Amino acid sequence: MSTSTAAVAPLVLADVLPDGPPRLAPEVEEALVAAVGREHVLVGADVAGHADPFSFLGEATVVPAGVVLPGNVEEVRAVVRLAGEHRVPLWPVSRGRNYGYGGASPRVPGSVVVDLHRMDAVVEVDDETGYVVVEPGVSFLALAEHLRSTGSSLMPSVPDIGWGSVLGNALERGFGYTSHGDHSAFQCGMEVVLADGTLVRTGMGAKADSTAFALYKGGFGPSVDGLFFQSNLGIVTKIGVWLAPRPESTAVCMLTTPHDDDLAGLVDVLRPLMLEGTIQSNAVIGNAPVVASMVSPRAAWYDGPGLLPESALFAMNAAMGTGRWNARFALYGPASLVEARLDVVRAAVEAALPDASLRVTTYGRDVDPAEVHPADRAQLGIPSTDLIQMAAWRGGTPAHTDFSLVCPPTGADAVRQRDLLRARIQDEGFDYAGGFTLNARHAIALALVAFDRDDPADCARVAALFPALVADASAAGYAPYRSHPAFMDLVADQYDANDSALRRTVGRIKDALDPLGVLAPGKQGIWPGSASSRGGV
Amino acid sequence: MSTSTAAVAPLVLADVLPDGPPRLAPEVEEALVAAVGREHVLVGADVAGHADPFSFLGEATVVPAGVVLPGNVEEVRAVVRLAGEHRVPLWPVSRGRNYGYGGASPRVPGSVVVDLHRMDAVVEVDDETGYVVVEPGVSFLALAEHLRSTGSSLMPSVPDIGWGSVLGNALERGFGYTSHGDHSAFQCGMEVVLADGTLVRTGMGAKADSTAFALYKGGFGPSVDGLFFQSNLGIVTKIGVWLAPRPESTAVCMLTTPHDDDLAGLVDVLRPLMLEGTIQSNAVIGNAPVVASMVSPRAAWYDGPGLLPESALFAMNAAMGTGRWNARFALYGPASLVEARLDVVRAAVEAALPDASLRVTTYGRDVDPAEVHPADRAQLGIPSTDLIQMAAWRGGTPAHTDFSLVCPPTGADAVRQRDLLRARIQDEGFDYAGGFTLNARHAIALALVAFDRDDPADCARVAALFPALVADASAAGYAPYRSHPAFMDLVADQYDANDSALRRTVGRIKDALDPLGVLAPGKQGIWPGSASSRGGV
Predict the structure, then answer these.
(1) Is residue A365 among the annotated active site residues?
(2) Least confident piece of the model among A19-33, A434-448, B211-225, B365-379
(3) Does B44 share its domain with B146?
(4) ipTM of this predicted complex?
(5) Spatial separation of the C-alpha atoms in residues A485 and A98, rounded to whole Å
(6) What interhelical angle do A263-275 and A411-427 show, nearest 10?
(7) For chain A, N or C: smaller number of CB within 10 Å?
């Protein structure tokens, strides 16, 4: 495989191997049906729901050859063994709802999507020590409902849209907005099916009768859990997830600043409060179009040609009570402690950002979710699907893709990212609907690009925008941590230190654990045979 | 290799391969000297300092064939290549100060210890975002001194004894006692030399000019960092470590309970305070002999035959102001917030443990380390070597070994562990000097066994005690997370789920990354060739 950037342009997928046939061979279909039952194997027109729902690739959109829906771990093991036998590439998804990044769409044409959504058991809930064990099919909506209906004292952490898989989101390094918002960091204990059907339990779970499967990450010897994040080294069938106890009090804070230039100050006042533990959540920082797109279509603010004018931004802020930059974060704990946290936050904000306004809404432990302001739900761990409508921002057939860059959590970096992203995005004719998820030690710079899936010109601009953003960011020392499948090689190419030593190392592990290369070839730029016959990535 | 428990008795090392010759072959010595310089290769009597300082194995004590002390990454790469060429097993250590667990001692006779203590640069300190990057030779003492002398605002987290390596401690899953006490959890970014000399930078560091090497753990694609904990898959030459800002106020709390039966209540009152984020450190829970051994020899309390009598325990508590169980933990942050945290702690303790006493000492940001009570230093991130004297508890030639079990952080589990450990330890004629490091979601049950290194009877009892404790614990669903090299196979055997699938999987990765098996064969029970010629572990 070449690593030149030319080879990873989004429309060139035909030169990557192994591709399966565009349609499932009859003997493969038969074998899968024997393994999981007729109704759990989809072929032909029935696979359409597993292609990228927001594809910007036109005719090059990757469509799976089939979909298999195993109902339990033994069926997953049978499927991987069959795939090896028949040399069919698999593309495992938990629920396949990663819509801004390809949905359930495989990287390689001819793949069979392994859709795990039928495996939807909440296997264990432990209120005393704060964890659950879930299968891949458990959505955030389902977990929250399970906890509520069983009277659990635990609070889930949920991402923007609650229909996705708790397990899948953690594996893709997704995040929520509570004190336990860094979902991959709060995973503990895994069960994984390897390509040869070996069933591995990690960490303490490697002891058959362990009392600490989901309590202590380490175990004895090397930790392999990290290998299965954004990975094609195995299919994860269970994880432990640490959840916080529902606190006595939650204060959701909205910090609003009037000027575009306030961004640096906003970041630099919040980061130290996070580092010292006063603020326990991340802070979601968004500009006015981001906030507006959560509740309205673009046309409500501006219907003329070209980019959103300044006047539209002012109109948004006037109507919504927002500012040019808006940060939402939360404080948790006993009521007295939340008050003390809030006093510290207020003092810091007043000293650093005298023009800013801080609005606070406090919720008690047993607040009815229906009484929570929609914008505050994520900070309370209440899942919803409201934000699906952000894809409809520009009209047409709603679609969106996102761009997520890792950067240091400093005001100076935020300004660099804002300028870099805004310039390129506006060059391509899109509004800059952007912001940051700010954590104590890193920020994710986000740009949300809504487009009309049925407009070829829109799609072509999206397809051109992503590689341009990667190039701009990379030159400045930044890189994305996730990507649409079409750009996975491009992003992996940016991780180039020591002749791509990390990618080559993961390739060697890939060849050791999946020598036939059937699991998700190409995912995150890791291809089978990369350490041997392909001569290194 | 057999996995029967008979094969892993501590004195049976001769049947494991590959062993090197007991003395370094002249051509190997010559090659190493050419790579690192004459003065950095030790052989013959000079290697004695790299054997287990507290060995209880008598004549079976493993002595290295040589020691090599590379001074930089290129020399480490040269050493691993030479080891492959000459098929000499290496045993890398950072500073080799893991004294209770074998010190610098290799697992396999004839190994060459790769002592990295000369690589002692603090590569980077970033006060703004709270991290340092260190080489293996940086001790906790040196890091603290570096931060102080450069006026850094950061506070290190330090273990009980400060002479060890910051990097080595994190890799062995050691811990300290501040809000950043879980050292492996606060590692971010790694540089690793593989067996073939490949130099890998992990996570964001896999991008050559990344701005986020030590800031974001994830990167793009699978995370390999976990593979290098307690590992023989590579030699780690740099890590990023997250440090907390030195807080305005630190309140160190000592919670003392009068009765042996208070243990469950003590654990069950502290855990929820940790889960909700009120208490930010772990809690070190120790019984009276543990506390006494920190400041005095056993003979000061009891000089008769047999175990410490109850009267000695009462005398200790009366003299030291301690109780049967004593928990030390800390609160950090702005002074107002620490006060609010303390109020919550006080109320919880008063409600749950009316007989307990809570003593609090509060320190300001700029407290002189000399003014800090010795017992409070670890909670303030001030390293010392005071606790070395615990090894002298029983008199004779001081030595100790420790037993560390992972368990759920509940009162019921703590009581089970106490009873299990106490019974077996007392059966072997040792005092139960024990306790727990309690975290929000796990506890480590600790038993400290001091013995006379020059007393063969003492040594034989230690050698018998460990396997007996492992068997008792394992039957109850618990397992150690670390061990002396002599017991690594025994402990690995306890992680038996699905026909030891995790161990077999790590073995496959071992063979992929180190096919010649030169790196630390047998470490944590992972042997070269385990996936192929040895037919699986």
Answers:
(1) no
(2) A19-33
(3) no
(4) 0.94
(5) 11
(6) 130
(7) N
Of B99, B101, B332, B478, the active-site residue reads B101
Q: Is residue A72 part of a domain?
A: yes
Which candidate, A122, A127, A128, places its Cα nearest to that of A144? A122
How near does any CA of chain B get to the CA of A445, in Å? Answer: 13
- Whole-number pLDDT of residue A530: 55
Express each pLDDT in B429-450 by its tens digit. Answer: 999 999 999 999 999 999 999 9
Among B194, B214, B245, residue at a domain's last position:
B245
Q: Does A140 touch chain B (CB under 8 A)?
A: no
Are both B204 and B106 inside the same structural domain?
A: no
- A196 at B interface, C-beta within 8 A: no
Which of B200, B207, B220, B246 should we substitute to test contact with A (largest number of A Cβ atoms within 10 Å)? Answer: B220
Taking the whole predicted model, whether its pTM rises above 0.90 is answered as yes
Is A9 part of a structural domain of the chain?
no
C-alpha–C-alpha distance, residues A265 and A275, integer Å: 16
Q: Do A236 and A260 share a domain, yes or no?
A: no
Segment A270-310, tens digit of pLDDT: 999 999 999 999 999 999 999 899 889 999 999 988 999 99
In whole angstroms, give the CA distance from residue A251 to residue A247: 10
- Owning domain of residue A187: 122-245
Look at residue A536 and tell me if it is in a domain. no
User: Which segments of chain B have a pLDDT < 70?
Assistant: 1-21, 530-537
In chain B, residues with a C-beta closer than 8 Å to the C-beta of A202 are 502
Interface of B with A in 352-391 (CB under 8 A): none
User: Do B465 and B397 have their domain in common?
Assistant: yes
> Is B495 an annotated catalytic residue?
no
CB contact under 8 A, A509 and B513: yes
Task: Give, in order, the Cα–Cα distances in Å from B278 to each of B330, B380, B440.
Answer: 10, 17, 11
* Structural tokens at position B230: 């307690």
Rounded Cα distance between A417 and A405, Å, is 9
pLDDT at residue B338, rounded to an integer: 98
Interface residue B511 vs chain A (CB under 8 A)? yes
Q: Which of B185, B223, B496 sits opposite A229 (nearest CB)?
A: B223
CATH number at residue B103: 3.30.43.10
Residue B472 within any structural domain of the chain: yes
Residues of B in contact with A336 (CB under 8 A): 340, 343-344
Where does the pLDDT of residue A388 fall: very low under 50, low under 70, confident under 90, or very high at 90 and above? confident
- Together in a domain, B216 and B304: no
A172-204 pLDDT per residue, tens: 999 999 999 999 999 999 999 999 999 999 999
Domain count, chain A: 3
By the 8 A CB rule, do A114 and A195 touch?
no
Average pLDDT, chain A: 92
Instruction: Clarify whether residues B384 and B402 are in a common domain.
Output: yes
Shared domain check, B195 and B109: no
**Are B432 and B334 in contact, with CB atoms under 8 Å apart?**
no
CB of B280 within 8 Å of a chain A CB? The answer is yes
